From TrEMBL:
Family: Belongs to the IMPACT family.
Listed GO CC annotations: cytoplasm
Gene Ontology biological-process entries: regulation of translational initiation
Protein name stated in the entry: Thymidylate synthase
A Gene Ontology molecular function term of the record: ribonucleoside triphosphate phosphatase activity
Range of residues in the leader sequence: none
PROSITE patterns in UniProt: UPF0029
Source lineage: Bacteria, Pseudomonadati, Pseudomonadota, Alphaproteobacteria, Rhodospirillales
Amino acid sequence: MFTLTKAEQFGQEIRKSRFLAWAGPAGSEEEARRFIVGHSSQDAGHNCWAFRIGDIYRFSDDGEPGGTAGRPILQAIEGRELDRVAVVVSRWFGGILLGAGGLMRAYGGTAASCLGAAEREPIVVCTALSVACAFADEARIRSGLGSFPGTLIETRGFTPDGVELHVMLPRDRMDDFIRMVTDISRGQAVVGHLDD
């Protein structure tokens, strides 16, 4: 899955109606709704939208016939394998009726073109771990993190026997990290999950 790195816009005219799409990253439902409100055009006849954040997805036809705008926009998001994304498509009516099929193609196509032009990046699912280790092992563990790009580590406290670290790393590298810590500490470090 991917998300967008920044907001993107795309406009086109279809049978004298003007369509303008805005797409952008949204990490929560609240962010998505703020994006939609902030990018809806007040003078447009319709501001149809959709967003997807994990298992949460919503869409609106904003007065267009049911199923002709919001769902095609959502399908454009899903078709591009995107998540954590909001899209709003504004329409200014040009005097020619498009029909249900024409509206679906216009809204879905405008959204898809906007998303296709947008810069995207892979979504990296991270996990948080705690590591309790001896003082002597801390430097070697920190040094070993060089082979784990995108990993964050911070000291959270001290124990009578050593230090407690909090580590945030890509979930698909968790087993490799635990194996490295076990090898460095000769099985003495204790690794636990913080996000359970």
